[in-house]
Amino acid sequence: MSRSIRNFLGTHNLLAVSARLREPALNQEQTLDTTMLVDLNTVLNWRPGKFPNREELTGKEEADRLHYLGGAVGGTLSFSRAQPQHAAFLLAYALGEVSTTAVGASGYRHAIRPRSGELDEARSNPSFTAAMRYGKQVRKRRFASCFIDQVRLELAKDGWAKIHGTVKGTGKVTDNTAVEQVSAAYNAGSLTLAANGVEGADAAERLANVQGVQVLNPATQAWDEVSYSAVSGAMPAVITITPPGGTGTATTYKVHYIPRESGWMSLPARVEEPPLKVSQTLVSVGGRWNGSAFVGGHTLAAELRRLVWTLNNHLTPERTPGAGADYANRAFRMGREQKLEFDRDFRDFILAQHLEDNDYLSVYVKALGPEFETGVRYQVELVFPRVAVLQAPVKIAQRRLVEEVQFAVLEDDTYGSVLALVQNQVSSYAA
């Protein structure tokens, strides 16, 4: 056989993060502690900065070189059935300041606020480490220093709470794969790796974890495919191959394989929590947050069709002189920005009047889950102490009048721009 077939179904992908502990410094990996139940289409990718030399005098019509500037990491963590832990994780790293207190006998209440100023000399916000398994055994990759740049929370009728986080990373990655060059005769029947064993609990799995063998043809100087049929469980591993040539000329082979795994390559378990239902969400407008409770205001009920909150840190990892590596060495916010939107039935002109009066309101959102112990629930609360209506156009939807209200989220002198309170059984986030 020339190549083994590995399971590359996307449903076998896994994503793990260091949710509880932030990285001690930029580009210093933290221990992975939680595997997240993300949407199927969620994939983190390393994106190389490669540039053809089209703008240089090559003496040709087309480019003839490819310049490499380094890589970056990007992707979106999407949770279409958002759990309290998903909100806590994304908001802890997006807002940056978390204080945790015990609640009940087994629970914790995480108060998450926007961080003022920088975390350290290289970061505005805390960073986390992430890792992905691609398919069942194609590759695992660890991503150092990931940041949550944007968060979008959506509560729409007849569904679950949805939350999405945009990830930006410095570009420092580590793989569980290896490419090894082995010197052997052109008519060799086996290859011995230098020091590594091949990952796999049995012969079939080890064979699948060798992903390709090539030989440098002494006559053509081209890399030819080599058939392989068995991989030993020894250390170093011995790979049985079909001799590619009939002479004993010394040449070079390339072996693409997964070495025996250790450390971060064993991904942690998931935390099991119930998803949040939109139908169990409470929304109040117009009251006041007094530091411990939301008082007064009007509770929206049947008229609210959808609520969307977006947060943007405008954060970008950057490479500066002195980085000393092919990845970014700083990541600063360019200015946090938030937006809150309501899609509601146009049953009264109260919010439209707030637009005309240019006054300030408070908004309170509480998404309730079931109890994890008597009297203590899974829940997510969002407090916006100071908002103002930006616009409120009226439209038609399902033969009824609707009002699409957009609020500017402003920073209150005492309570800031937003407070997230998440209650579950996880002891810390971004600590």
Describe it for me?
The strands form five sheets. This protein has a 19-stranded antiparallel β-sheet that branches. Strands 11-17-13-14 form a four-stranded antiparallel β-sheet. A three-stranded antiparallel β-sheet has the order 12-16-15. The protein contains three helices and 30 strands. The longest helix is centred in the N-terminal third of the chain and has 12 residues, at 84-95. It is mainly beta. It is elongated and about 90 Å long. The chain starts with 13 loop residues before the first strand and ends in a 7-residue tail after the last strand. The protein is 6% helix and 48% strand.
Extract low-pLDDT stretches.
none
Rounded radius of gyration (Å):
27 Å
Percent of residues in helices? under 10%
SS element count, helices:
3
Shape: elongated
Largest sheet: 19 strands, antiparallel
Helix-and-strand structural type: mainly beta
Number of strands: 30
Give the integer mean of the pLDDT values.
92
* End-to-end separation: 50 Å
Strand percent estimate: over 45%
List the keywords.
431 residues, mainly beta, 19-stranded antiparallel sheet, four-stranded antiparallel sheet, 3 helices
Question: Mind sketching the topology for me?
Answer:
Blueprint: E1 14-17, E2 34-36, E3 45-52, E4 66-79, H1 84-95, E5 96-103, E6 107-114, E7 128-134, E8 139-156, E9 162-169, E10 173-175, E11 178-185, E12 190-192, H2 203-208, E13 210-216, E14 223-225, E15 228-231, E16 238-241, E17 250-257, E18 281-285, E19 288-289, E20 294-295, E21 298-300, E22 304-312, E23 315-318, E24 330-333, E25 337-345, H3 350-357, E26 361-373, E27 376-391, E28 394-397, E29 400-409, E30 419-424
Antiparallel strand pairs: 1-2, 1-7, 3-4, 4-9, 5-6, 6-30, 7-8, 8-9, 8-10, 8-22, 11-17, 12-16, 13-14, 13-17, 15-16, 18-21, 18-26, 19-20, 22-25, 23-24, 25-29, 26-27, 27-29, 27-30, 28-29
